[in-house]
């Protein structure tokens, strides 16, 4: 059995992952409306990944005899001031998620719940990737500046991104 304290914290994390999914879906819809289909595609993939993160935590909590409790998902922003602003918001958000994962990790250690700590290892690495992806695109967008043609090329490039089922789900 998992402790009530850790169960509550994982339920809060499930909500945070679903909020992330909703945020990225909102960003995808913003880009669709702006005519940037590649950026929209990139965020639709993000949306699916975040849903998968929530699912990994749900499966894990169930496997430990815990109870998944789904709470309301808070409102997300709907407007941004261009692609650079969106990716800056993405990086800032992922940095917050990294802090949440680190707090969960510390709680698992404090509770001597080494199974949970082990489960969180994948998320620790995933956050490195999430922050790196956003930071790399911020760098590209800063280089692009006001060059519409270069922005078009990046949009085309991001249209090639496809969703891959994260390994903790694929293994199930
Ligand atoms: Mg996530």
User: What radius of gyration results from the CA coordinates?
Assistant: 17 Å
Average pLDDT, rounded to a whole number, is 97
CATH level-4 homologous superfamily: Ferritin, core subunit, four-helix bundle
The global form is elongated
Content-based structural category: mainly alpha
Helical run tally:
6
Largest sheet: none
CATH architecture: Up-down Bundle
Query: What order do the helices and strands follow?
Result: HHHHHH
Q: What fold name goes in the CATH topology slot?
A: Ferritin
Give the % helix. Answer: over 70%
Number of domains: 1
Low-confidence stretches: none
- The overall strand count is 0
Terminal Cα span: 21 Å
The level 1 CATH classification is: Mainly Alpha
What small ligands are held by the chains? Answer: magnesium ion
Please indicate the percent range of residues in DSSP E strands (runs of 2 or more).
Answer: under 5%
Short structural summary:
This protein is mainly α and 172 residues long. 77% of the residues lie in helices and 0% in strands.
Task: Give the topology.
Blueprint: H1 4-34, H2 37-63, H3 83-110, H4 114-144, H5 148-158, H6 167-170
Magnesium ion (MG) binds at residues 17, 20, 50, 53, 97.
